[in-house]
Amino acid sequence: MINPNYNIYFDVNNFKGAIKCINEYGYCVIRKMIGEELVKELKCSIDEFIDPGLNIPPASNRSHLAFAEVSRPLWKLIENAPYLNFNYQVYGTKDLCLHRSAAILRTAGESFGTWHTDSREHIKTPKVASDLLNCHGLLSGAWFYLNGSHPDHSGIAVIEKSHYLDWDGPEGFELTKNRNSFHPIGDDVEATYKSINVPGCVPVVAEPGDLICFADRTFHTNMATYERRYSCGIGLRPKSIKINAPWSLPLTAQRMIENLPRHLKPYVDGYTGYDGQWEADQ
Ligand SMILES: [Fe+2]
Q1: Could you tell me the distance, in angstroms and rounded to a whole number, from the CA of residue 215 to the centre of ligand 1?
Q2: What percent of the chain has a predicted confidence (pLDDT) above 70?
């Protein structure tokens, strides 16, 4: 675990610095991307669609992997000029569409998670929807941790510089066979490692309105959870990256497209939807 001796915090007037930090170290934090009001609204929306009965058990989590299809407040992130401008600068174009979106709710008692990369760039034969969606070099993390992030109450930890193509695990560790995770050298190859004690691990410290960004391949995980915690994200991609999804557009996606206000419609041109049930033919 390390305390970075370089700056990882940027404000909304310095996206250039933020992007440089992502390129160099694999992650960064952008301060005050959204205000308190929107933080509150997004939390309410997560309750409404993920835990309407407020009965999620302790030490557990629930997620929605196409949250933009149900949550109107999530679209307020796209209506938020700094967030949209950040995306323009990251991808070098204004011609963007909705790529993926998600929300996660965790309750106190959840343990430190499994280290992993979201990137599926190294998968030769796509089997599930994420294999087809997470291989385009887009930011894996453009996440709002609506309770903030801190090792004392939870949030996200990342491994600095783990986004480089030739990175093959922290010192003393090796990547698992599928290259999605890692384990101490000599341990069972299928075992995955759940601990903050890894060389290069940075427990990210951020406030509720901050945006936590990380690169496509950056290894990360959730830290142990000590409270009810909310997070969400809405990711965009340049329309020049065309994806022919082999699944049909889910009904919820069709309904979202019909109901979106006119100024947001351009962002669904190219949206594939997400079908968690889809599996490639063997
Ligand atoms: Fe992840």
Answers
A1: 11
A2: 99
